[in-house]
Amino acid sequence: MSRGQMYTLEALIASLIIFGVVVFAMSSSPQFGTETKEFTALQLKKYADDILEILDLENEDHSSLLSSWVEKGVKSNNWVEFDTNFSYISESLRQNLSIMLHVEVISPNGDAKHSYGPPPPEGAVSSFRVVPVSSPPYAYEVRLYLWFV
């Protein structure tokens, strides 16, 4: 082989290596178009889980904020404290993160006992907590829906 052919072959191999590296780098980078929706849903789910978990942290008397709000609402059929507290949470989420919320309290027989906030759209993400109420001894489900505005 002559010297010119070797340089040509060397240039061809080098260009194939560079092309392979570029293709590999592009295929391993994140695909923003398809993963954005999934990431958003996952982030909202994490927010909803965290909100309910913090509200359901156990106090010294083995109750939680969430269980006391639900118990007061169920006993007196007066949900003012529940609505007031979720109004504060809703306002904070809307101002800081542009997130809306809807909360439902569902009785043991599956009926919606109380709800707060605008109805959730079709793509809203939900999370729930089962909240025991001491008298009468039932467990209510608190379902929280979140979505971006």
Can you offer a commentary on this structure?
It is a single chain. The protein is an alpha+beta fold. It folds into two domains: 1-30; 35-148, no CATH class. 54% of the residues lie in helices and 22% in strands. The protein is built from four helices and four strands. A four-stranded antiparallel β-sheet has the order 2-1-4-3. Strand 1 (99-106) and strand 2 form a beta hairpin. The protein starts with a helix and ends with a strand. The mean pLDDT is 88.
Keywords:
4-stranded antiparallel β-sheet, 22% strand, alpha+beta, 149 residues
Major beta sheet summary: 4 strands, antiparallel
Secondary structure: number of strands: 4
Rg, Cα atoms, Å: 27 Å
Estimate what percentage of residues fall within beta strands: 15-25%
Write the layout of secondary structure elements.
Layout lengths: L2 H26 L3 H24 L9 H12 L3 H18 L1 E8 L5 E5 L8 E9 L4 E11 L1
Describe the structure in brief.
The protein has 149 residues and is an alpha+beta fold.
